Amino acid sequence: xxxxxxxxxxxxxxxxxxxxxxxxxxxxxxxxxxxxxxxxxxxxxxxxxxxxxxxxxxxxxxxxxxxxxxxxxxxxxxxxxxxxxxxxxxxxxxxxxxxxxxxxxxxxxxxxxxxxxxxxxxxxxxxxxxxxxxxxxxxxxxxxxxxxxxxxxxxxxxxxxxxxxxxxxxxxxxxxxxxxxxxxxxxxxxxxxxxxxxxxxxxxxxxxxxxxxxxxxxxxxxxxxxxxxxxxxxxxxxxxxxxxxxxxxxxxxxxxxxxxxxxxxxxxxxxxxxxxxxxxxxxxxxxxxxxxxxxxxxxxxxxxxxxxxxxxxxxxxxxxxxxxxxxxxxxxxxxxxxxxxxxxxxxxxxxxxxxxxxxxxxxxxxxxxxxxxxxxxxxxxxxxxxxxxxxxxxxxxxxxxxxxxxxxxxxxxxxxxxxxxxxxxxxxxxxxxxxxxxxxxxxxxxxxxxxxxxxxxxxxxxxxxxxxxxxxxxxxxxxx
Length: 480
Prior knowledge:
Elements: H1 2-22, E1 26-29, E2 34-42, E3 46-56, E4 60-67, E5 79-82, E6 89-97, H2 103-109, E7 114-121, E8 126-138, E9 141-146, E10 149-152, E11 157-160, E12 173-180, E13 185-195, E14 197-207, E15 213-224, E16 230-239, E17 269-270, E18 272-277, E19 280-285, E20 289-291, E21 295-308, E22 310-316, E23 330-333, E24 336-342, E25 356-363, E26 369-377, E27 385-392, E28 396-409, E29 412-423, E30 429-436, E31 440-446, E32 450-454, E33 457-464, E34 468-479
Parallel strand pairs: 1-4, 2-16, 14-25, 22-30
Antiparallel strand pairs: 2-3, 3-13, 4-12, 5-13, 6-12, 7-8, 7-11, 8-9, 9-10, 14-15, 15-21, 16-19, 16-20, 17-21, 18-19, 22-24, 23-28, 24-27, 25-26, 28-29, 29-34, 30-33, 31-34, 32-33
């Protein structure tokens, strides 16, 4: 019997040795192997990383531990390019290890195992080691067996562990099983998508004293919460509405605030080279930059001076007014203030502008820039018009009176209106009266000419002298 057991033991040992001999060797690649790194950030919460490394691999099957990747990597998106080896390098398997080491996880892995407790006595300047078995670790509270006693964790004790458990890693790691037929150092490129990255554009416009032009500065704010730092990376930004099957949500970047206009040449000056890519636009920073983990970085996008703009005062009505009888004058109607400009080369711009917030300032009598309003813009191609609502005018008021109402039949009526605008500013202004009509309509008479802007909208232009009043009257018949 003893001979049989001894033979069986030798056989088992031989099987273990053979298995170990067949286990492929392991090569570890870290950030120091990088020769290039490129990051493309999308404005809907993710990024694409291109990590280029020089690695020497043994021939045959080999495990590669590709470390220092983003902890928010999406492993299913990883693509490996063998730039040097070509067809001599093949990927057989890929694993992603993200069970990162922490004090809690270390203790959880040692439940049921023997550890060493070091009891501290600072008065005697002593450290007394005691062997113990970790029975449980729940809610950050370990329970030990020391001899015949059950001991709940007490302060002023340290737990010594003999080794790091196999299933824990210090950093997120991609592990590849490769079949390598290339000899010598080779360049391997890992491309992958990662969450936790976002960028947004912000713009600052400073109005000239005459409010006929402005200086416009654009900034991009990049937030990196992907779980990795990208040193001296080539940075690209993609603007556009890219479809994703499972969109992810990440925190928006903080707002960009500025108090003073930045100097710029007459034409727009850009830090990013812009190009069309598929149905989107790609912005490439023309120098390398570092994106640190948990960092918000701001980079200048453009600077333009003397951008010509138009300022508009606007009163907007409502379509429901034309179906009902109004019993009293509608007072204190807000008069909106808008500015608009053309995104053209002739207007010192002409660059596709990513969506973002435009904040507008104007200098007061002492020369300090004061905030006068903000509005958001969508992705705007070149040669398109941009309009911003900055707020409501303080010194311009409007009121509306229904002067006549006639019900002509079922779902058919006729109404007459008087709209009065009073200008308390010390300058003449023009006010747009925008009336959204309803159903099948017809203007029967009006005191001012109007423009039919679309199938449901007419617009009156009302010049209003300083400290003066302008009135528009009209009659309209609607059927719905």
